[in-house]
Amino acid sequence: MFEHIAWIFELTLNTKELSGLKELMNEMVNATKENEPGTLAYEWTVSEDGEICHIYECYESDEATLAHLATFKEKYAARLMAFGDATSFVVYGAPDAAVNEALDGFGAKYMAPIGGFRR
């Protein structure tokens, strides 16, 4: 029932000038869409005041999650973090130990599934 792994990553931005962030976002979204078929959702939002960015991600499996994280660390992590500070990172689902180990470095908080459904 909880084979998918999802999270919401919150970044408090250090600038309200979003053009650089949007440029990086477009690069990351396009690369993820094109090269990572196990990524089910990859959505970026920004608060009305331009101070907070949320990135919602959902992966079909532990393997898909690890593939994304490897690319993110190699190509994008430092560039993204230049735009602000990670203020929240909440992970949903039941990731395996390898995924937990990879996410722990980002300060992940885990929400264990206890019920529900997905269509």
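That was protein one. Protein two is written in the same sequence-then-structure order:
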Amino acid sequence: MQLIQQNPDVHAYLVSDAAIDHWHPLVQDTADALWSATGDAYSYAKAAFEFVRDTIPHSADSGDERVAWRASDVLSTRNGICYAKSHALVALLRAQGVPAALCYQRLADDDGSNHLVHGLVALRLPGSDRWARLDPRGNKPGVDARFDLDREQLAFPVRPELGEIDYPELYAAPHPAALRALQESADQPELWRRLPTAL
């Protein structure tokens, strides 16, 4: 699949905003600690991915009903759904100068019902002209997302026969539908009702 930058300027994928708050001290401190243990962009990106994937449980797996949407809040509460975990990973990558984007899939239940939009991350290592998608959702039985910049290994391969879609757009900021669902939900049950079914 050909990934498409929503903004042609790669520098747009380094900025901070309300959700991708990589200026926040907790994001900076976490990024600095991960960088000091690695020292190069590839190793850092892998460590940041694995940190978000493995140390911040997905709310659906943990049962945590809190709704985090800012990257700093995700790191603080160690909680979030795919969108929120993606915000945290993008913030950590950008904090160390790695261009990072938000991207999405439309997924369904095994019978093709209950479509929901799932959040992912794409990164572009400094000096590269190629984007690679990653899924920091968190692994569990039947889900095995990995850090691989050459051969994509996401949590959920798309099944077009069920109406599932890989959206090719790379967003510099969270998609408004995803961000609105997070911001307007008081708890997880409300968030599940508000999740977008398509972009």
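The chain has a mean pLDDT of 95. Keep this in mind for the problem set.
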